[in-house]
Amino acid sequence: MHRLNPFFARIGYDRAAKIILPFEDVGKKLVFDCRLCGQCILHYTGMTCPMTCPKNLRNGPCGGVRLNGHCEVKPEMRCVWLDAYERSQKMPIWGRELLTEQPPVNWQLHGTSSWINLLKGVDRRLRVVSK
Ligand code: SF4
Description:
The chain folds into two domains: 1-41 and 107-131, no CATH class; 45-101, no CATH class. The radius of gyration is 16 Å and the shape is elongated. It is 34% helix and 0% strand. The longest helix is centred in the first third of the chain and has 20 residues, at 13-32. The protein has helices spanning 5-11, 13-32, 80-89, 114-120. The protein has four helices and no strands. The protein binds iron/sulfur cluster. Residues 28, 32, 34-37, 40-42, 49-51, 114 line the site of iron/sulfur cluster (SF4).
């Protein structure tokens, strides 16, 4: 159990989310172009937001990556998953996290605080770890 859990449980997760969500929204939007999916997997993807992929893929690229490494949907954009791979290889402790299979996006969590969802454990349901 997370150390902060009792504190947030005491003030109530809903109230904590109201306080935290604006900070998470602004901060992560600025740094990671966060789309507020409510189930953050940044540290699995070399701190690259997978929701910036036009197809919202959470387990690697589609089959349509162009020869120049750009997206098939938005040709002017580099594939998010190339960035995710390269960045994850530079991360000292989370490099292999990229191999963790992610559950499908739960759109019911969209627009909610991923930090609070992490504390509540609702973002981890169905996650499978590769051996
Ligand atoms: S994975 Fe979700 S919460 Fe994390 S930065 Fe991307 S949209 Fe935001």
